[in-house]
From TrEMBL:
Organism per entry: Populus trichocarpa (Western balsam poplar)
Pfam families: peroxidase (PF00141)
Protein name, per record: Peroxidase
Gene: PRX81
Alphabetized UniProt keyword annotations: Calcium, Disulfide bond, Glycoprotein, Heme, Hydrogen peroxide, Iron, Metal-binding, Oxidoreductase, Peroxidase, Secreted, Signal
GO biological processes: defense response to nematode; hydrogen peroxide catabolic process; response to oxidative stress
CDD domains associated with the record: secretory_peroxidase
Details of cofactor binding: Binds 1 heme b (iron(II)-protoporphyrin IX) group per subunit. Binds 2 calcium ions per subunit.
PANTHER family hit by this protein: PEROXIDASE 53 (PTHR31388:SF139), PEROXIDASE 72-RELATED (PTHR31388)
Annotated binding of Ca(2+) 2, by residue: 196, 247, 250, 255
Amino acid sequence: MSPPPSTSFFSVAIVLLGMMLPHSKAQLNATFYANTCPNVSSIVSNVVQQAFQSDSRIGASLIRLHFHDCFVNGCDASILLDNSSSILSEKFAAPNVNSIRGFGVVDNIKTAVENSCPGVVSCADILALAAESSVSQSGGPSWSVLLGRRDSLTANQAGANTAIPSPFEGLNNITAKFSAVGLNTNDLVALSGAHTFGRAQCRTFSNRLYNFSNTGNPDPTLNTTYLTTLQQICPQNGSGTALANLDPTTSDAFDNNYFTNLQNNQGLLQSDQELFSTPGAATITFVNNFSSNQTAFFQSFVQSMINMGNISPLTGSSGEIRSDCKKVNGS
Ligand code: HEM
Ligand SMILES: *[C@@H]1O[C@H](CO)[C@@H](O)[C@H](O)[C@H]1NC(C)=O
Ligand SMILES: *[C@@H]1O[C@H](CO)[C@@H](O)[C@H](O)[C@H]1NC(C)=O
Ligand SMILES: *[C@@H]1O[C@H](CO)[C@@H](O)[C@H](O)[C@H]1NC(C)=O
Ligand SMILES: *[C@@H]1O[C@H](CO)[C@@H](O)[C@H](O)[C@H]1NC(C)=O
Ligand SMILES: *[C@@H]1O[C@H](CO)[C@@H](O)[C@H](O)[C@H]1NC(C)=O
Ligand SMILES: *[C@@H]1O[C@H](CO)[C@@H](O)[C@H](O)[C@H]1NC(C)=O
Ligand SMILES: *[C@@H]1O[C@H](CO)[C@@H](O)[C@H](O)[C@H]1NC(C)=O
Ligand SMILES: *[C@@H]1O[C@H](CO)[C@@H](O)[C@H](O)[C@H]1NC(C)=O
Ligand SMILES: *[C@@H]1O[C@H](CO)[C@@H](O)[C@H](O)[C@H]1NC(C)=O
């Protein structure tokens, strides 16, 4: 039975009207490069796999690059731009300087991708793909990465100083910074689970070890056995650049031990332990869920990585596809 002529007329009119409206915000999707670079995921994952051979920490460093990119002007590879006459690089913002790493591997990935599909794949998408490869190759979940981001023409060093959470600020402030980019408490706890691998320098947590908040004592939410270990790694008056594993139990594996650690007062950063030790906090039930059920953690983590990867991407004809991730084309 065909619908009355008037209905089909209106249907056609509505579809035509829809096609005429500007598509200001194209959605990312998993098949963006299906015709133009069908093998991009395996190209990225092969380079990441190669990098793991000589650097067991590289996966952690790569996912952190994606996080620090997305929180500043959205996931637009702004973090990859070097200083130039018109760029104040985000690499020198406080949360990044002498800390963020993995740029050489990103360049190797870009070179490999350009060799197969020149001028097609954005640096912002490379960061998202490298983050997924890093997690899945470390024992964590795999997922279909949404693609179609384009690269920025600018960087925002001041934004990097204010938008990226600090390990010294309270849970309320950190929650506010996640909320400012559209991420909720579930996302905050799930994404913090990325501290299941990688390292942190003593300077990011040594305030907890000797004279916490001028009390003359260590942070009371720090497990005393763990405290002794950390004091050995980070002597008083040390340089602050020695490294500790973010997850003291399974340092390079992507698993849910991060959450069990928090229950045992073995969160390394103050911002980690606060998720479990802040009285009455909404984060606690998520920590308990993820600690008792790795499947729940992985499921939540994947969704939250997709949410983070969707922060204000440049799409359509905004921005560009950089040919060198470190600089704007033609500069
Ligand atoms: C919730 C607020 C967060 C704070 C305050 C925070 C803070 C930090 C700090 C201070 C370090 C150590 C840096 C150094 O010592 O050089 C670190 C490392 C790391 N962060 Fe976070 N982070 C947060 C959230 C996240 C998120 C959302 C992710 C990813 C989804 C992430 C992934 C990592 C990884 C993997 C490392 C280790 C990097 C490496 O070994 O190179 N962090 N984070
Ligand atoms: C993916 O997004 C691109 C750009 O918006 C679009 O051209 C393409 O049709 C989309 N693919 C699917 C399967 O939605
Ligand atoms: C794409 O990847 C598949 C599986 O990794 C491989 O068999 C194929 O040869 C690759 N194709 C190209 C064009 O690189
Ligand atoms: C880049 O600029 C920062 C200031 O934003 C400066 O501290 C740094 O030394 C410069 N780095 C290079 C390699 O030019
Ligand atoms: C939390 O945010 C407030 C308001 O922005 C700021 O004044 C305060 O210094 C922050 N607290 C910490 C510990 O960073
Ligand atoms: C802790 O720090 C405060 C402020 O700097 C200082 O007055 C106090 O003497 C310190 N306590 C110890 C035990 O070092
Ligand atoms: C650290 O340095 C301060 C002064 O700079 C000194 O009073 C203190 O004894 C030193 N502590 C250690 C353990 O060396
Ligand atoms: C300290 O950590 C150990 C595991 O290393 C755990 O058995 C113990 O319960 C923890 N203590 C506290 C107070 O959380
Ligand atoms: C663990 O979480 C998964 C995913 O949310 C859920 O399907 C499963 O029932 C949970 N298992 C237990 C024992 O609660
Ligand atoms: C645990 O987390 C999973 C994944 O987000 C969710 O489906 C489930 O409802 C949660 N369970 C509890 C008891 O909160």
